[in-house]
Automatic annotation (TrEMBL):
Residues 11-304 form the D-isomer specific 2-hydroxyacid dehydrogenase catalytic domain. Keywords: NAD, Oxidoreductase. The keyword Kinase does not apply. The keyword Oxidoreductase applies. This is Phosphoglycerate dehydrogenase. It comes from the Bacteria. The lineage of its organism: Bacteria, Bacillati, Bacillota, Bacilli, Lactobacillales. Gene3D superfamilies: NAD(P)-binding Rossmann-like Domain (3.40.50.720). InterPro entries: D-isomer_2_OHA_DH_cat_dom (IPR006139), D-isomer_DH_NAD-bd (IPR006140), NAD(P)-bd_dom_sf (IPR036291).
Length: 315
C-alpha cells in the first residue's frame, strides 16, 4: 500500500520538511503531486481550490491544517460530512495585528496621517492638524480571541481602557469588562474606538451595520481587521458620509482587492490598507510550532492538540 502523504500546499524551508518527516516517519512529505498521488493525501497543509475536488472525493484525507486563522473560505460542510479534522493558524498574527491597530490609532490621534498628506504638497499646516490623546480612551474589542487578548495587553500599557465582546460575555483576562455579542448595540455608544476581529460566520455576517454605526459616538473610530463580510459596506459608506463616525481604518473588505470604483477610496476620513495587518515576521517558524504540535498528537492518537476548529461553528 502507498505510504500516506502529507501535502504541503505552499513552500516551507527544508528544515521544516525534515522536522515533519522526523515526527511522521511513516508518511511521505511532498510539495508537488501527480494526479495519481492525490488519493494518497491524508494530511493537507493549506488548501487550494485546484486540488479541492480530488482531495474531497478521496477517503484518505483526514486532516487539513489551515495556514490562516480564518477558515470561512474552506468547504466546512464537506469536511464535516467526511469527518475531516480542521485546525487553523490562530495566534500567529496576534502581535502583528495588534501593532497594526496601535499604529493606526497613533497615526490618527497624533495627526500623522494628515502630516503625510501635507508633506506631499509641501504644506506646513500645523494649525489644521487633528490631534487627540490615546490614553484614557475606551476601546471595544469585538472578538476576544488570541488577537483581541494581545491587543488588550499591548494597548493597556498606553493607558487605554479595554472592553471585550464575545459570544457569551464570559470574562477574559486583561479586559475591564466583557459583554455578549447580542449586547453589541447597547455598548458601542460608550466607546471611543471599536475594533472588529471577528471570524466570518453566519452569525457575524454584516454585524457591523447602520444600527451599530448610528449608535457610535460621532468622534468614534472604527477599525476592521477581522473578516470583510462582518461589515455591511454600503451602510458603512453611508455612516461615513453622514459623519455618524469620525474615522474608519479598514484592512479587510467584502470584495478584495477593493474595486477602484468604491467610494471608500475617496473619503478623507478613511485609511485603507491592502489586507496587510497580519503580515508576520518569521511566519514559518510560528506556523510550524502549531503544525508540529498537532502532527505529534495526530500521529499518536489521530487527535489534534492545538487550534482545532469546530466545523459547525466555523471557528
Amino acid at each position: 500500500m502507498t505510504k500516506p502523504i502529507i501535502f504541503l500546499q505552499r513552500e516551507f524551508r527544508e528544515e521544516f520538511s525534515d522536522k515533519i518527516q522526523a515526527v511522521a516517519p511513516d508518511y511521505q512529505v511532498k510539495t508537488e503531486l501527480t494526479e495519481d498521488e492525490l488519493p494518497a493525501v491524508e494530511i493537507s497543509v493549506g488548501w487550494s481550490k485546484k486540488f479541492s475536488e480530488q482531495l474531497l472525493t478521496s477517503d484518505r484525507l483526514k486532516w487539513v491544517q489551515s495556514i490562516s486563522a480564518g477558515v470561512d473560505y474552506l468547504p466546512l460542510n464537506d469536511f464535516s460530512d467526511r469527518d475531516i479534522l480542521l485546525s487553523n493558524g490562530s495566534g500567529i498574527h496576534a502581535l502583528s495585528i495588534s501593532e497594526h491597530i496601535i499604529g493606526v490609532l497613533l497615526g490618527y490621534y497624533r495627526g500623522l496621517n494628515q502630516s503625510v498628506k501635507n508633506q506631499e504638497q509641501k504644506i506646513w499646516g500645523q494649525d489644521a492638524i487633528h490631534y487627540d490623546q490615546l490614553a484614557g480612551k475606551n476601546l471595544l474589542v469585538v472578538g476576544t480571541g488570541h488577537i483581541g487578548q494581545q491587543l488588550s495587553k499591548s494597548i493597556r500599557s498606553l493607558g487605554v481602557n479595554t472592553y471585550g465582546i464575545n459570544t457569551t460575555g464570559h470574562p477574559v483576562e486583561g479586559f475591564t469588562e466583557t459583554y455578549s455579542i447580542k449586547n453589541l448595540s447597547k455598548i458601542v455608544s460608550e466607546m471611543d474606538i471599536v475594533v472588529g476581529i471577528l471570524p466570518g460566520t453566519h452569525e457575524t455576517y454584516h454585524i457591523f451595520n447602520s444600527d451599530i454605526f448610528e449608535k457610535m459616538k460621532k468622534s468614534a473610530i472604527f477599525i476592521n481587521v477581522g473578516r470583510g463580510d462582518t461589515v455591511h459596506t454600503k451602510e458603512l459608506i453611508t455612516a461615513l458620509g453622514e459623519k455618524h463616525i469620525a474615522f474608519a481604518a479598514l484592512d479587510v473588505f467584502e470584495e478584495e482587492p477593493l474595486p477602484k470604483e468604491s467610494p471608500l477610496w475617496n473619503f478623507e476620513n478613511v485609511l485603507i490598507t491592502p489586507h496587510i495587518s497580519g503580515l508576520t515576521v518569521d511566519f514559518q517558524n510560528k506556523f510550524m510550532k502549531i503544525f508540529l504540535a498537532n502532527l505529534k498528537s495526530y500521529v499518536a492518537n489521530k487527535e489534534l492538540s492545538v487550534n482545532q476548529v469546530e466545523l459547525k461553528r466555523g471557528y
